[in-house]
Structure formats: C-alpha cells, structure tokens
C-alpha cells in the first residue's frame, strides 16, 4: 500500500514568488492534515480537511496560505507571495476517519517538502 | 511558554543502554499522548500511543504518562544503533480533531556501537 506522498521534496524560490505543494494521502483516508516545521522550532498544525471540507484551519499563519482538497483526494497548499519566514519543512498527514481508536485516528506522515525562500 | 516542552538534546548513548526521553506540558486538556520517531529526511512515524495516565509497553519501548505532574516519558531498553533518530512527543486534547497534535521540539538520539 502506498504511503502519503508529497511533491516536490525540495523547493527553492525567491521572496515574492508563488509555490504550490502537493500531498497525496493514503487512498481511502478521509482526513488530511498539513503541518509545518520551521527551523529550530516544533512541528506545528496548520489545518485539517475532512474529505473536501476544511474542518479546522486555525493554524494557518495568514492569508498568503491557501489550501485546497479537490474532490476529497489530493491536497495542495499554495503560498503566495512567499516570504522568508515561510521557509521550513511542510508535512502532510492522513488518517482513516474521525472515530476514536488507534486504527482510525493513527496519522501517517509524508516525508515532507523542504521549502527555502531566498 | 510553550504548551509542550521537550529537551532537544542531542543525546548520545552506547549500544545496549537504557534511554529515557521526557516531555512536560501545561495544557490540562491533553488526554491523548503519543511518541513519534523521525528518521532523517522522513516524516514522523507513530511509535507509542497512550490515553490518560499509566504505562504502556511494546517490545523494548515503554511509555509512561503522569497527568498529575503533566509529565510523559518514553523508555527504550537495550538501545540499538537503528534507534538513532529524532523522538517527538505529541499530544491532543479531548474535543478537538484527533489528528490536531501539539508536538514537542524533538530529542535527537544517537546510539553508537
């Protein structure tokens, strides 16, 4: 079974440019999460999709970030325009469903996209 | 003050040693406690999952939660070089999305032969 796939693995852009990160969750997983780790800091929650709907976007830093999940399958996270402080590793994770129990709520993480804004 | 505090290390131990990793937290709403292991250039992988206070054992790994002290621990017995990784504690609160986790900063562990 394929895991969570993120693309690209690395992206280097200049300040002011636009970047789009993509996440393909495990097939059949209703829940999709975006997290971010800025250098020297802890991994922080950005937002949560249930199928195609945004359930919780309380962690999104500002309106330069736009996340979508078309058709409840893959998700994209667009940063426009990128700023220096957006540099970090962006992780995507998915889980089966919002029902208590490890089998349902266990998060599977992708390997992340390393974003460098110069 | 951070909601979850974790000593980033680094921690270096000889093979076979017992490793103790710890996190403290301030949010009383946290009910679910996890330990993740992250290898270089990979995403975090769930290692242990516990609910509320108590101990849980899985092979060489033991997770402990003391809610009265707001303190969680992970013990690794007979550590192996393959255990070398970053270990992250994570927590979630009752009533929030199950996958909305608050992470510690992570402890870098090296087990040398």
- Tally of contiguous helical segments of chain A: 1
- The helix-and-strand class of chain B reads mainly beta
* Overall radius of gyration of chain B: 13 Å
Number of strands of chain A: 11
Give the percentage of residues in beta strands of chain B. Answer: over 45%
Assembly form of the protein: heterodimer
Strand count, sense and closure of the main sheet of chain B?
Answer: 6 strands, mixed
Low-pLDDT windows of residues of chain A: none
Bulk shape of chain A? globular
Ends distance of chain A:
37 Å
Helix content of chain B: under 10%
Helix count of chain B? 0
Largest interface (C-beta under 8 Å): A-B, 26 and 22 residues
Mean pLDDT score of chain A = 93
Number of E-type strands of chain B: 11
Give a structural overview:
The complex is a heterodimer of chains A (118) and B (113). With 118 residues, chain A is mainly beta. Chain A contains 1 helix and 11 strands, in the order βββββββββαββ. In chain A, the strands form 2 sheets. In chain A, strands 2, 4, 5, 6, 9, 10 and 11 form a 7-stranded mixed sheet that branches. Chain A is globular and about 40 Å long. Chain A starts with a strand and ends with a strand. With 113 residues, chain B is mainly β. In chain B, strands 2, 4, 5, 9, 10 and 11 form a 6-stranded mixed sheet that branches. A 5-stranded antiparallel sheet of chain B has the order 1-3-8-7-6, with no helix packed on it. In chain B, a hairpin with a 2-residue loop joins strand 6 (54-58) and strand 7. Chain B is globular. The relative contact order of chain B is 0.34. The mean pLDDT of chain B is 93. Classes of the chains: A mainly beta (118), B mainly beta (113). Chain A binds chain B through residues 4, 31, 33, 35, 41-45, 48, 55-56, 91, 93, 95, 98, 100, 102, 104-107, 109-112, and chain B through 2, 4, 6, 41-46, 49, 88, 96-106.
